[in-house]
Amino acid sequence: MKFKTTPEGEMALVPREEYERLKAIEQEAKEDAGVAALIARAKKEIAGGVPLIPKEVVDRLADGDNPIRVLRQFREQTQAELAAGVEITQNYLSDLETGKRKGPFELHQKIARCLGVPFDLLAPIAVSLAEADPAQIAKHKQVIADKRRQRGQR
After folding, report:
1. CA gap 70, 57 in Å, rounded
2. Would you call 112 exposed, middle or buried from its count of C-beta atoms within 10 A (0-12, 13-18, 19+)?
3. What is the band of 50 on the pLDDT scale with cuts at 50, 70, 90?
4. What is the DSSP string of 86-121?
């Protein structure tokens, strides 16, 4: 290794191979620091009460299985129990689990609370109320339009 004095100070001149080796070590150290930060955050979340989810459950979610069904089964609840807990019919819950219907964000938040899991696990399948029940939204809009017309006739 050689040293050279420049206006910015003394510089080390290293062969390209040595430079690349040092850069790889630096990158590895950054990755190690990132992993350490993730572990520290996970420990803090666990200590704060964030639920732990077994690998087999995570694998099912990653494989695209319906998260409501996967998490309900993980919590050992029947459809009837979960439906009663979130105040919907068992048929509606069955439709959500099979993908025949979509549920609004608010319902998925209730399901997450009832199952004791983070909402983030259900958020990807949640939709707006308008998407979940367009007929109800259309009916609501019609009622509002009718009331406005009635007020205009007075």
Report:
1. 7
2. buried
3. confident
4. HT--HHHHHHHHHTSS--BHHHHHHHHHHHT--GGG
User: How far is the C-alpha of 147 from the C-alpha of 149, rounded, in Å?
Assistant: 5
User: Within a 13 Å sphere around the CA of 122, how many CA atoms are in the beta-carbon half?
Assistant: 27
In this prediction, residue 90 carries a pLDDT of 96
DSSP 8-class letter at 54: -
Assign 14 to helix, strand or coil.
Answer: coil
Instruction: Identify the pLDDT of residue 49.
Output: 80
The tally of CA atoms less than 13 A away on the side-chain side of residue 97 is 18
Q: What's the pLDDT tens digit per position in 77-123?
A: 999 999 999 999 999 999 999 999 999 999 999 999 999 998 999 99
Task: Provide the mean pLDDT of the chain.
Answer: 90
Please say whether the beta carbons of 123 and 105 come within 8 A.
yes
Percentages helix, strand, coil for the chain, rounded to the nearest 5? 70, 10, 25
The CA distance from 40 to 27, in Å, is: 20
Q: What is the pLDDT of residue 153?
A: 63
Torsion of CA 137, 104, 83, 97, to 10 degrees: 110
